[in-house]
Amino acid sequence: MRHTRRAIHAALTTTRALAAAACGLVELLRYTLTEAANTGRTLRISYAKEGEPALVRDIAPEEVKRSKAGDWYVRATCLLRGDHRTFRLDRITALETA
Q: Rounded to an integer, what distance in angstroms lies between the CA atom of residue 61 and that of residue 87?
């Protein structure tokens, strides 16, 4: 009985993440960043501006929004810079819990 409850709980907690992952990388990033914003978690991202090498930054996501042009962005506090920054999701090359 306990194993069944654990299995059901594990399945329910991963369902949304799996659904987002099935939709693509940007959707998975969007899901992860939104969850971090809702729970107050800090994340470590590798972010590459066009034509520049990737930088590793620790961020505290605040909101994820879509621009009028259709690109997804995350507004976050960048702990490296100590200020609010906006990051384009398709330029995030890696993401992990900080």
A: 10
User: Which of 41, 14, 40 is CA-nearest to residue 28?
Assistant: 14
Give burial (CB, 10 Å; 0-12/13-18/19+) of 32: buried
Summarize pLDDT for 48-82 with one digit per residue, the tens.
998 999 999 999 999 999 999 999 999 999 998 89
Query: Helix 25-39 to helix 2-23 angle, to the nearest 10 degrees?
Result: 120
Both tokens of residue 27?
């959707």
Under 8 Å between Cβ of 16 and 31: yes
Q: How far apart are CA 42 and CA 10, in angstroms?
A: 23
Nearest 10 degrees: Cα torsion 18, 31, 82, 98: -20
Q: What is the pTM of this model?
A: 0.76
